[in-house]
Protein 1
Amino acid sequence: MQTYRLYINGEWVDTGTRYEVRNPANGEVIAECAVAGEAELNAAVDAAARAFPDWAARSYEERGELLRAVAQGIKARYEAFALAETQETGRCLRETMAHDIPATIAVFEYFAGVAPATLGETIPVPGMYLNYTRREPYGVVGAITPWNFPLWLAAIKIAPALAVGNTMVLKPAPTTPITALMLAEVMHQAGIPAGVFNVLTDPTPATLGDLLTRHPKVRKISFTGSTAVGVRVMQNAATHIAPVSLELGGKSPFIVFADADFDRALAHALLANYFAQGQMCTAATRIFVERPIYERFRDAFVARAQRLQIGDPSDPTTEFATLHKREQLEKTEFYVRTALEEGAKLLAGGRRLTEPPFDKGFYFAPTVLEEVQPTMRVACDEIFGPVAMLMPFEGEAEAVRLANSTDYGLAAGVWTQDIGKALRVAHQIEAGKVWVNCYNMIPPQAPYGGYKLSGFGRELGLHCLLDLYTQVKNVQVDLSPDYFEWFG
Ligand code: NAD
C-alpha cells in the first residue's frame, strides 16, 4: 500500500489527514491519500498563478521538450501505471495496458509538437493599420476528471493546456487519484517547473471541486464528468465568468445496416458496450440493427456477451470485471429492473454476480435487453453499466430518428458498406463524434466532444488549443504618418 501526499508548487504536501482508496474488485485498501482543504486549494491556485508568467513566456519548443520528457517518464513506468489504473478503477488490465497507457503517451507526444500551430492572423482593416491576433493562454486552468479513465482523461487536459502556456490545478475523482499523483511524480522528474502543475485530492465528491470552480484566480475550467455535475460546474464558473468546457455523459447509438460487415460490426458492438464494463461516456448502449439481419445479429451478440471471461481485473486474461462502485451497481440494477417492468425482455445477464470471488466486488453480468422502446427510462438515461439494448429498424430515416431520440449527443457508430449512406446518416446524427465502420477511436489529432446534454467545447486536436486553452488578443498598430486630434 502506498501513501500519497498532495502535489503543490513542486512539493509533496501532507495535511495530517488521510483517506483510503480501495480496489473495487476486492475492497482492499491500495493507497492512502492526503485530504486537501481550502488552505491547500488556495496554495495550489496561488502557486499556479505565480508560475504562469514564466511558463507562458517560455518558447513552445522548451515546453514541448518537457512534455516529451513526461511521455518518456510514463513509458518508463508503463506497467506500474497500467496496474495502478486497474487497481483504482476495477477495469481490466488488458484494457489499461493496451489502451490507457499508450493513449496517454500519444497525447503527451502529440501536444509536445503541435502547439506552434496555434497561429495568429493578420486582418486587413481600413486605414494605415497593422491588425493582428495572438493566441494567449488563460492562466490557471482548473481541471476536474471522473474516475473511469483517470490517467488519459487527465492527460488530454494537462498536455494541451500546458503546451500553450497555461498552468493547472487538477482535481481527480476521489476514488481514482493514484495515477494522477504518479503522473505528478513523472512530471516533477521530467523538470516541469514548480507550480505549473498541481494535484489535490480529497474523499468527498464535491467539496474541492466547488472550491476550485468558484476560485476567482482560476481563469478557465475544464471539466469531464456527469451532466448533473456539469450543470453545477457551469453555475460555479458563472460566479467569476470563467469559461468552461464540459465533457459530459452520453447515450450513444450504434447503427448496423443490413449490408454492414457483420463480424466487424458485432465485435465492435460488444466492445462499445462491455469495454470498461460499459462505464464509458461513449458506451453505445442503443444498438439499432436493420430488420433483415436483426435476429442473426441479436443471437450472435447474446452468445458472445455470455462468453465474456469474467474475473479479477488484474488477471491479464480477464475480459470483463467489476463495476467501479456500489452506487453504480445499484443504479445498473435499478435500470434493468425498471426496463423489465416497462416491458423490455431480458436476453442475457441482468443480475449481480455474488458468488465468490465476485462477492467482494461490484460485479454485474453483461446484460442484453430487447423490446426496448425509445421512451423507456433505460433508453433515455445514461446508465454507465454493462446494459446493451438491441432494437430493430427499417431504413435510413428511421435509423436517424431513433439515433437522435436522446437528449445526449456525444458519439455514434454507423455500420454499412455503402459510403454514401454512411455519410448521409453521419451528417444527420446529432453528436460530436461519429465513427463509420469503427468505434471508440479517439486519436489525439482529432477533436472530441459532445452536442446537447453531452456538453460543449472540443478536447484534443488543434481545436482544443484554439478553443479551450487559448484566448484571442487583437492588436491594432497605427502605421499612418498623420495623427488625429479629437479635442481642441
Ligand atoms: P461525476 O460527475 O460524479 O464526477 C466527476 C468529477 O466531478 C469528480 O472528480 C468529482 O469529484 C467532481 N465533482 C463532483 N461534484 C462536483 C462539484 N459540485 N463541483 C466540481 N466538481 C465536482 O462523474 P463520475 O462518476 O466520476 O464519472 C462518470 C461520468 O463522467 C459519466 O456521466 C460519464 O459519461 C462522464 N464522462 C464523460 C466523458 C466525456 O469525455 N464526455 C468521459 C468520461 C466520463
Protein 2
Amino acid sequence: MRKILGLLLIAVPLFTQGQTDARPDDLLKSDFHKQKRAELRAKMPDNSVAIFFANAIRNRANDVDFLYHQDPNFYYLTGHKEPHAVLLVFKDKQEVNNERFDEVIFVRGHDALRELYDGPRLGKDGAEKTLDIEVNFENPSFKGFNLDFSKFDKVLFYDFQNDVRNTEEEGDLFDLIEQFKQKAGYKQGDLAIEPQKNNLDVVSLDTLMRELRGIKTKEELDLVRKAVDISTIGQREVMKAMRPGMSEAEIQGIHEFVFKKYGAEFEGYPSIVGAGNHGCILHYIDNYKPAIEDGELILMDLGAEYHGYTADVTRTVPVNGKFTKEQKLIYDLVYEAQQAAADTCKAGLPFPVLYETTAKIVNEGLVELGLYESLKDEDIINPETGRNRYYPHGCCHHIGLDVHDKGLYGTLEENMTITIEPGIYISNGSPADKKWWDIPVRIEDDYLITKDGCILLSDKAPRKSDEIEKLMKEPSIFSDYRLPELKAGE
Ligand code: GLY
Ligand code: MN
Ligand code: MN
C-alpha cells in the first residue's frame, strides 16, 4: 500500500501536467522521419525488407526501471519515443491483410491504468495523427500479420541482444521479437557465426544506417548546435564556479542544472568529472571525490542531449584557476595536437589522418619533455594494454543521436559532425618522473565538416590555457548560495 501511495504522489502531478503542457516546437517533424524512411528505401537492395525494433526497457532494481531512451535508429526513422514497437520498411509495396503499403508500424495500445501511472500513450489513433507512417497497427495484431518473409531476397535487421524481458502485456517487445523470429525462420545463434544466412542479414543494415545518419541535415544540425551551445555554456558556468573543496558530483550537478535550464532533457552519456588521478580513468563516471584538492586538474567530459542529439565536450581545468608549470606544458601540447588536426579537417580527408596528426604531435612533444625516451614502439606502447602509454584512445568519432554516432570512417564528408579529442593521461605510478603524476588532460571539441574546412561548434567554452585561467577569475552565480549543514543524528 505504501508503495502505491508513493507512486500516486508521483503520478498525479505528471498526469495533470500532461493536460496543460505544450511540447517543445523544435522537435524533428514527421516530414523529416518520412524523408529518412524514403532515403533508406532507396538504398535498400531489390526485393528486401528492413525491420527495426524499439529499444528495450531496462530494469534498474526491483520494480524501478531506468529512464527510457528510444533506440536512435528507431527514433530517426519514426520520431516515436515509446517502447514496445516495431517498424517494417519495404523496398516495394506489399499486399498484406488486403492492404498495400511500403511501410508499417506496430505500436502499444492504450491502457487506462498504465497511462494513469506513466502518462499518455500514442496508441494507433495518436500514431496515425502524428507519425505519418503509411499503416499503423497495435502490437497484438503483429502475430496475425500475414507476411511471408521467405519471399524476400533480403530480410535486413540488427541481431538481437539477450536483454529483453517478457512482460504480461500482450504484444510487448519480447513477443514482437519472438513472433518476428518465428515468421522469418530465425534461430538464435545462427547468425552469430554466419551473419548472412539464407535471406537473413544482420550486417548490411548497419552500413545503410551509417551512410544515412553520418551526414546531418539542416534540421539535425540545428539540434546538434543547440546541444553543443547548451553544453558549453554549462562548461563556462562550471569553470567560473570551480574552487578547491568542491566535490566532483557538485560540478556534475552544476552542469546538469544549466543544461536542464536550457531545455536539454538528458546527459548524452554519463558525465565524467575526474579530479587528479581520477581523470586518468578514461570513462570515470563514479564522480565520488568529496573535496577536490588545491592544485589538482579536473577533467570534465560533459555533453547534454537536446531533443535526441548530443554534444560531447571535454574541458580540463586547474581547480584553483591556475595551471602549474607541468600541467600547462601538457595542456598546451594537447591543445597544439587538437588544433593541428582541426586545421587539416575538411571534406575529402581520410578519417585516420586526424588521429595520426594528433599522435605525431603528442608523441614528439612527450619525447621532448622526456616522458618518452624515443619514438620507437617499445618506448611508447604500454605492453600491458597494447596502447600508446599516455595517449591510449582514438581521437575522433561522429556525434548525433548517439554520442558515438552512426557514420562511416573512410573519408570526411560535408555535414558530418565529429569530435576531435586528443588526450594525455599521466597517472600516479606511471614510469614518468613524479612531477608529472596525476596530470590528465583531454580537450574535446565538436566540429562540422565543410567543403573547405571545419567549423568549431563548441567555441562557447574556452580551449586555450590562458583563456581558461581568465574565465575562471570571473564571478559565478553559484558562489553565494548556502545550504544548511547536514549533521548526523539530528
Ligand atoms: N564522452 C565519451 C567520449 O568522449 O567518447
Ligand atoms: Mn568523444
Ligand atoms: Mn567525451
